[in-house]
Amino acid sequence: GAGVSQSPRYKVAKRGQDVALRCDPISGHVSLFWYQQALGQGPEFLTYFQNEAQLDKSGLPSDRFFAERPEGSVSTLKIQRTQQEDSAVYLCASYPGGAGNTIYFGEGSWLTVV
Amino acid sequence: RKEVEQDPGPFNVPEGATVAFNCTYSNSASQSFFWYRQDCRKEPKLLMSVYSSGNEDGRFTAQLNRASQYISLLIRDSKLSDSATYLCAGGSNFGNEKLTFGTGTRLTIIP
Fold first, then answer.
1. How distant is the Cα of B90 from the closest Cα of chain A, in angstroms?
2. Chain A, 55-114: which have a CB under 8 Å from a chain B CB?
3. What are the residue ranges in chain B where pLDDT is below 50?
4. Quick one: pLDDT at residue B49?
5. Would the CB atoms of A41 and B103 count as touching at under 8 Å?
């Protein structure tokens, strides 16, 4: 497809369970971002990749959060031992680079931890 | 203090009215600014980019005031379809376009 694709769209996890969220960016976009959006809040930066290199992971809230993009295209955000405070929408975005452009979001993965 | 701040609203505005939102930013190194629109249970979508002195797109006008470190969004002749949450965002424009978002301002247009 033409846009950023994320899966699963909805995930209910029991507390303590591990989850993996997938992002397929727009073809040709070298930059990929993960954001977390809690209810009633704006998106909060988690991590950033340029191709396969993770250049910034300063927003990851704890060492339970891990992201990878091994071949520079599809990315996976993994959350280990999920907690209730991890409940949020996880948005992936890709960026084409160059002046005058901005990031384009996927529809998000809605995670509910019960 | 959050790096980007917005009044969360809600703003309830009659159809046809003009509505304005402000957004302040604290990082003076921010170079690029954007307004995003987010509908309920949807992803943010770019509404307007804001560079230098601002720009206009139809009923929407965005302004940047670097001296006071705020950006604004003006919506004229508001329509029911304008009901959404409006997010402002700032970026360093250093080639990676990592954005910092405000909490969003919720707008409801009333018939």
1. 11
2. 55-56, 91, 95, 97, 99-108
3. none
4. 87
5. yes
CB-closest option in B93, B98, B103 to A33 = B98
- Look at strands B105-110 and B11-14 and give their pairing: parallel
What's the pLDDT at B95? 54
**Window A:1-60, CB contacts with B under 8 Å:** 31, 33, 35, 40-45, 48, 50, 55-56
Question: What is the percentage of chain B residues whose pLDDT exceeds 90?
Answer: 66
Residue A84 DSSP SS3: helix
**Cα dist. A76→A21, A34, A104, A112, B59 in Å?**
5, 10, 17, 18, 39
Q: Residue A11 is which amino acid?
A: K
Amino acid at A29: H
B67 Cβ contact list (under 8 Å, min separation 6)? none
Dump pLDDT digits (tens) for A52-70: 999 999 999 999 999 999 9
Q: Which of B51, B44, B38, B46 is nearest to B93 (CA)?
A: B51
Please give the pLDDT value at position B80.
Answer: 97
